[in-house]
Amino acid sequence: MTTATEATTPPEWPLWEVFVRTRAGLDHKHCGSLHAADPKMAIQLARDVYTRRQEGTSVWVVRSDQIVASDPADKGMYFDPMEDKVYRHPTFYQLPGAVDHM
Amino acid sequence: MYTQAMDTMGKEGDGKKAVRSAEEMLLEQRFDARIDDGEFIEAKDWMPDHYRKTLVRQISQHAHSEIVGMLPEGNWITRAPSLKRKTILLAKVQDEAGHGLYLYSAAETLGTSRDQMLDALHSGKAKYSSIFNYPTLTWADMGAIGWLVDGAAIMNQVPICRCSYAPYARAMIRICREESFHQRQGFESLLTMMEKGTAAQKAMVQDAVDRWWWPSVMMFGPPDDQSPNSAQSMRWGIKRVSNDELRQKFVDAAVDQAKVLGVSLPDPHLKWNEERQHHDFGAINWDEFWQVIGGNGPCNRERLGARVKAWEDGAWVREAAMAHAAKQSQQPLAA
Description:
Structural class of chain B: mainly alpha
Helix content of chain B: 55-70%
Structural class of chain A: alpha+beta
Mean pLDDT of chain A: 90
Number of helices of chain B: 13
Number of strands of chain B: 2
Low-confidence stretches of chain B: 7-15
Strand content of chain A: 15-25%
Number of strands of chain A: 3
Strand order of the largest sheet of chain A: 2-1-3
Radius of gyration of chain B: 21 Å
Distance between the termini of chain B: 46 Å
Radius of gyration of chain A: 22 Å
Largest interface: A-B, 25 and 34 residues
Strand order of the largest sheet of chain B: 1-2
Strand content of chain B: under 5%
Shape of chain A: elongated
Oligomer: heterodimer
Mean pLDDT of chain B: 92
Largest sheet of chain A: 3 strands, antiparallel
């Protein structure tokens, strides 16, 4: 896997992330990635690769290098502080039975 | 379809490095603890070098198998006996292409490029499932591949849906969902010939089963005691069930299915063992297996030649598409 790509080798088609809306009313969900030369081809290939069995009614594609993501190393720092904020959840509040369905 | 236990086929000599820094050992301890807790590993998480290499090898070989696997079946698309069977076969071969693409994408998350993987395939450095180096001689081979080869692949692949490397597991879930159609269409195609076919068609089915049985049984890879990397893969949650266990499960299932089909399986030693509650079966010809893996199967050269030709013949298309994209991006957006 360390073979250096030769200088004469043309670049790969860029990588795109694919998001599919499974049916109207739901949100688009990430389902995979693919290589395509341009946006139009990326949409076309996304349909062929990821919706062969009516898995979607709409697809989004976005260049992978355009996605900004949180750093996994920051996971604890970013997300753990919410763990002790139980008062953000409705179940934190004990109410009398008569009004508990509130 | 079509993974094969290929854990003994690494040629990169990627054994564990003897010397590791204290920091690296700490990271590895944490990593092992995460595996023990049944956590999934994502692409950007720290992972041992050997874990990464093992996965790149396994996933890329799996992807290559899907792509090369299109060739033996593609051979029959233009000669399918009816429009119905032709559309089914086309859909199946298209699925294999899709499965290859899911898997290449999963492998790319580990930091190896698509071109590097294809280069490894085309240069013969990377392997693919040995089963595709056998020829598809008759139409019944399409059914036998669906029933037996895809059946074996499903046995192999279902446990990988729980692989510790999440991008691989996600790809496998998608693949397994589509795989069942492959096996069922194959069985149904054979069953149709066995129930409504002529004597010649029935004989053709039996002949196909006779030729595909042993190569399918071999798809599970070498026996456990000759599978040195298996223990490490098990430890890391890359592999969940051993080769021999999966093979036994496959044989047990196939025996009952063969009865429904009305064909015999070409193994005189195949017999129910009351004590084990499993079928015993005859000795596997591992010489043949290693010959085929080593490049000396009936179709190795033809398969690889077809892949290299397709890649080279398509070079101008890939370049033209990039040139077109570059040209389009230079033009003003609103006409």
